[in-house]
Design goal:
Layout: E1 2-6, H1 14-23, E2 28-34, E3 53-55, E4 61-63, H2 67-78, E5 85-92, H3 99-102, H4 104-114, E6 119-124, H5 132-148, E7 156-161, E8 172-174, E9 179-180, E10 187-190, E11 196-199, E12 206-208, H6 214-219, E13 223-227, H7 238-246
Parallel strand pairs: 1-2, 1-5, 2-4, 5-6, 6-7, 8-13
Antiparallel strand pairs: 3-4, 7-13, 9-12, 10-11
Helix pairs in contact: 1-5, 2-4
Length: 247
């Protein structure tokens, strides 16, 4: 089995190191990740300049671009064979609800999915990063399951793992995305050069976090597994917009 690993925290991040070690004995693992932290890069591609591919001392490859660049470059130009799976992570911090729109972690997995490869986006749900080993073990379990029982079509799975020991987990559940309240306002401040600058505000707290959502699962020490799709069509509004246009 051939697995391509990526992330949005950079090739030096602890999460991707844990993941590479956990999968080393079950697959041929290639790491292609951004050269620096590209959190929040979403599905952006670099089109205004060429990309460079370099290799670090530990064997990981890194690209001076976005997470999407990394997967696109690897799958369409670097690797001699299509990988059997793309895994993005382990991200430090949750990617639940509205986070998936902005997430570079989810974007890397999405690019794999768009290129026809089953893909996982894996996140550890805290900024403390206390239990990367738990997320790595869960990912390994999912990979082995997919080896034994492949899904019938390419799939994009968003995996959020509580930051607890593996023994404290209360299982894996299939969830839908919850929803956050709107983000906090930007923070205005003055730089050391006396220039007005702005920091993007924090993400909003959970709004739709009821049973069945990713928020609810993680809050109850369950691994959240959410199948994602790319079709953004608001199907329920097709008739409404047709009627509006015909007036």
């Amino acid at each position: 089995m051939r697995i391509l690993l990526c992330n949005d925290d950079g090739y030096f991040a602890p999460g991707i190191e844990h993941l590479a070690r956990a999968l080393a004995d079950v697959a041929e693992v290639t790491v292609v990740a951004p050269e620096r932290d590209r959190s929040g890069a979403s599905n952006s591609l670099t089109l205004d300049r060429p990309l460079s591919l370099k290799q670090a001392a530990n064997g990981f490859y890194y690209v001076n671009g976005t997470p999407t660049d990394c997967v696109h470059l690897a799958v369409t130009g670097m690797l001699e064979q299509l990988p059997d799976m793309v895994i993005s992570g382990i991200n430090i911090g949750a990617n639940m609800g509205d986070d998936t729109i902005y997430s570079g972690t989810v974007a890397a997995a999405t690019e794999g999915f768009l290129l026809g490869v089953p893909s996982l986006a894996v996140s550890l749900c805290s900024k403390a990063g206390g239990h990367f080993a738990t997320a790595a073990r869960v990912t390994r379990e999912l990979v082995l399951l997919l080896q034994r029982q492949p899904l019938v079509a390419p799939v994009l799975l968003n995996v959020n793992v509580p930051d607890v020991s593996h023994e404290e987990l209360a299982g894996i559940v299939v969830t839908r995305l919850g929803k956050r309240h709107k983000a906090e306002p930007v923070v205005r401040t003055i730089s050391p050069r006396n220039e007005t600058v702005f920091w993007v505000g924090a993400a909003g707290e959970a709004q739709d976090a009821g049973e069945g959502t990713d928020f609810f699962a993680v809050q109850n020490n369950q691994v959240s597994l959410t199948p994602l799709q790319i079709d953004l069509t608001h199907t329920a509004q097709l008739g409404l917009v047709r009627s509006w246009l015909a007036q």
